[in-house]
Amino acid sequence: MLTQAHLSQVLFPVGEYTKTQVRELARAYGLPVAAKHDSQDLCFLKDGDYRGFLRRHGDTALPGPIVDTTGRHLGQHAGLSDYTIGQRKGLGLAAAEPLFVIGKDAARNTLLVGPRAALGHDRLTARQVNWIGGAPDGPIVAAVKIRYKAAPIAATITPGPDGSAAVRLDESAHGITPGQAAVFYDGDVCLGGGLIADETWPQPVADPWVETSTR
Questions:
Q1: Cα–Cα 20 to 30 A to 161, which of 87, 116, 167, 170?
Q2: In what order do the strands lie in the sheet containing 100-105?
Q3: Closest Cα partner for 88 from 97, 76, 79?
Q4: Res. 3 pLDDT band, cuts 50 70 90
Q5: Which of 189, 165, 205, 204 is closest to 66 using CA atoms?
Q6: Which segments of 29-165 does DSSP mark as H helices, in order?
Q7: Residue 17: partners with Cβ closer than 8 Å, 6 or more residues away
């Protein structure tokens, strides 16, 4: 998300040193940082309990309906922040086939679930896109990563006039999650990226509070 204005001010004070070399230098100079572990997950939480943090500092624990893609009411969730896209365990549902979280409808506080096949999508919209070297004049072909450890997927990326970009993937990807970054690459060169928009996900077609489950 860094712009050219940001990058023009960037300094790298440790130069070409690796992380291991930096730790060795810290030990040699008696610096306490040498004994610290690498930061992982939400490093500012001492207990690692991000759900508890959200419950204490935000209005995120409101229960609501769990529905499938037809709007059928299957159960009740404990708060949308407790669930992630692609999650299977901990849903508290009994079904003939495994169900996964495939979306969240924050406006109606609704959790959307479906079979594994429903997790796959071949397109997304990115908002607040930053083109590091400048926006292209039209559609380009590049690799897209939808999370840090995800394999890059070839895609056609079409920039929009409002700072958005329409991304059409060459193959379906699982776990495209609104709010996470979609980053564009040409080989090892980062072209830019943006935040995955909420409208990527399907919405229930019926009133989620209508109980139609036969369980």
A1: 170
A2: 73-77, 64-67, 110-114, 100-105
A3: 97
A4: confident
A5: 204
A6: 50-57
A7: 25
